[in-house]
Write a structure and sequence with these properties.
alpha/beta, 19 helices, oxidoreductase, Glutamate synthase subunit beta, Glut_synth_ssu1
Length: 487
Amino acid sequence: MADPKGFLNHGREVATSRPVEERVKDWSEVYVPGSLLPIISKQASRCMDCGIPFCHNGCPLGNLIPEWNDYAYREDWSAASERLHATNNFPEFTGRLCPAPCEAACVLGINQPPVTIKNVEVSIIDKAWETGDVAPRIPERLSGKTVAVIGSGPAGLAAAQQLTRAGHTVAVYERADRVGGLLRYGIPEFKMEKRHINRRIEQMRAEGTRFRTGVEVGRDVTAGSLKKRYDAVVIAAGSTTARDLPVPGRELNGIHQAMEYLPLANKVQEGDYVAPPISAEGKHVVVIGGGDTGADCVGTAHRQGAASVTQLEIMPRPGEERNPLAQPWPTFPMLYKVTSAHEEGGERVYAVSTTHFEGDEDGNVQWLHLTEVEFIDGKLSPKPGTERKIPAQLVTLAMGFTGTDKENGLVDQFGLELDARGNIARDADFQTNVPGVFVAGDAGRGQSLIVWAIAEGRSAAHGADRFLTGASDLPSPIRPTDRALAV
């Protein structure tokens, strides 16, 4: 373990953020570069010898958190990186983007602020890149087997890297023009600069993984041709069918899905546009949806110079502290969260529902009409007399996703069965009803966290490897039926 008295001697300290007035003028990550390293050894020392490390259960990857906390405390960065990569292909992604269910399950968190596991993780991997401890792992021999991976989000990339390292020849098909899936175009630059993706892709290319961008399976390439060409297929196409809002006025100009709005802002940072085709500049912006994607829209609107930003959430405002009866430790609690985007301004309105939109004579949205809602007999119902309207010249819908894309032909062409929730069904080996075709990530699990996506990719790679060779030494951290710790 680390310092036996670390949790007694040191309080919780997190990464330092750049001043709001500075960071909203650029798209760089919000944290002060290098601010973690001077404090991270003390923070890692707060990890206790707790006997049963529940952080292992909080994280589906099974990260060896106490071990790399100990190495970080001793500043043995090489050993810490080795332990970190033993269970996680991309800790620079999770260390920036994961909401850290491991911290919610930290034993210290029972009566103190938990260990800053996420900050320790990102410090280790950033130091590993700096010192050259992250190098390509080229397989000693090739198996002669070929695998196609559909989708280059975290699940697809994890599956591809694992299968490449097992000696298979892997090609990743991505329908966008660049590799990364939602990591590339759904996550704003201020949350994760895309250089982190780029250097990991270069590592994978050096290991032998091939990438085919701008190719949509189902439209540009048929499933049948893919099955003929490859010995196995891993579908990691994500859950990309966005939930819509079918209310009067939805057809007005200026109302967009979040995943129509956010990618254009990222494309500006990639140099594809001078200015985004959809911009919040000078507009009253309303974001419908209170989750992380909604917060990403809020932060993006701030940087584009919105006149005002309002975020709406249909559920009541959650509490700021864990309810020990409703959400006991070590489950992941639903708490009121202030992200970096919320620190930058705007208004958050809870327990409201949109009734309709109102536009001008040119068909552009100008107002959003809403009403407050309350639970009656277990159902959300409008509260009479609470109707009002707010200015809305740009509206983004960030209400989640309902399943994988079924319009591009991928599901039908493969002949895949779906489960009751509209996700691609799979067996215990992550194999679909079609032999040799596997599914990983949100396409099979439904909308979930990045750590679950990577865990799914690693587990699906194990199933595919066993299908190809009869046995597999690749790790399989989760089963398809596993779920997060919850009440």
